[in-house]
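Q: What changes when zinc ion is included in the input?
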Amino acid sequence: MDIEEMLGFAKRAGFFWPSAEIYGGASGLFDYGHLGAQLKRNFENAWLQYFVNGNGYHLIDGSEMLPEKPLIASGHASRFSDVIVGCSKCKTFYRADVLLNELGIKVSEGASPVELEKAIMDDNVKCQKCGGALMPPRDYNLMVAVALGPEKRESGYMRPETAQSTYLNFYREFNLLRKKLPIGLAIIGRAYRNEISPRQGLYRLRELEQAELQIFFDPEGWEISDKQNVLAEKVNVVPYKGEGAVMSGNEMVEKLSMPRFYAYHMCMIAGFYRAMQMPPEKLRFLELGGTEKAFYNKIHFDIQAEIGSWGGFREIGGLHYRGEHDLSSHTRGSGQDLSVEVSGKRVMPNVLELSFGVDRNIWMLLDILYSKDSGRSVLKLPYGLAPFNAAVFPLQKDEKLSEYALSLEAELRESLKVGYDEAGSIGRRYARMDEIGTPFCITVDFDTVDSQSDKYGTVTIRDRDTRAQRRVKRSEVFASIASGIWRAGP
Ligand SMILES: [Zn+2]
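A: The predicted holo structure follows.
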């Protein structure tokens, strides 16, 4: 699928579409429909179980509006920016590096306004819309400012990332959590960025959902026991210097001199995507270095997926060793010492950040798990992610069949998300459920309700992926479906 086909599919099926659609939509803003919202929630729950609860870490929640001070201390007020360039004639604005890269002129992601201006002059780049002359490139802060209070004198920002609230709450949580390191604090929630030209569906949004885990640790004392042999996971890794290769975590420690804790989390992330049925060759970790990576990151790998509709490998998350930058900055900014004492030693905790763009992950799942073979469209979502775990159909419109099917649906609904459909032919209903990723369809037919039949009280369960059908007793339906429950974990 290309982007337009993907947007068409997402809208037609019920996953997502532009916000304020009845007014013509809004740039960089999307609404999730009944299927998309459930898929997103299921993804977030799987993420929470796998990375947070499964490791004894904790979910917190933070305010989406923040006062100015912490964002000055974090550097966002001065540095959270892209370089933009505007047309002097038609006033169209472009992200300078994106504009140049699209024209085949190589510039790095962190290039300065001066470097970009030089590139524009050298290649005599003009406005792509009207051919007008471009104005000098300049920094443009991406944060969304808010003015609060009756006279709007209290200035603040919508948070540009969820991570900041974790740093702001670290000290209190450290004390609440028995003063031990490491501590993991996660937030799943919205972040806001005033993107210059949002596009490519869910890739660049002005309001986005993040799932981020910050692990605070003592850089001299983080033992990774690896009882489950996580470090044996094979990962497709592209170091900043050197060739890409498929390596286990153990090999990365040996050959790339990667810290063990870092390799461990990379493998853990790969395990997460493996459990999501993502083909391993479609996932890779790309190291950023030089001006591309934030100056405070000691190690920075983008998590990338090969996404056909976005034209190749694109970032869906990141694994960042941020050193002590965050807590040191907020110590300076707030005047409160955020260093802590562990085992008789004073430590400024370091941070390992696991950051995921939820919207990009949703797009990625639809892109990678959707397929069309001989006219059949099927979305092979893992059981635990599918918006509906199952759907119940009467074979055809018939009072007796409907009554039975509705009572079965009501029973299953107590613990599963179940759809019901009696409109159209059974073939079309299967096709619809295949396309939205429902793993099981349960059909009630005349034998089910015929007390003279040897199939009385049994229903048919059809598997989405194999299309195999099985006849089971009503009392066994729940167990047969639930045995397919996807469990997170390597
Ligand atoms: Zn122009």
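Observations recorded in class: Residues 486-490 have pLDDT under 50 and may be disordered.
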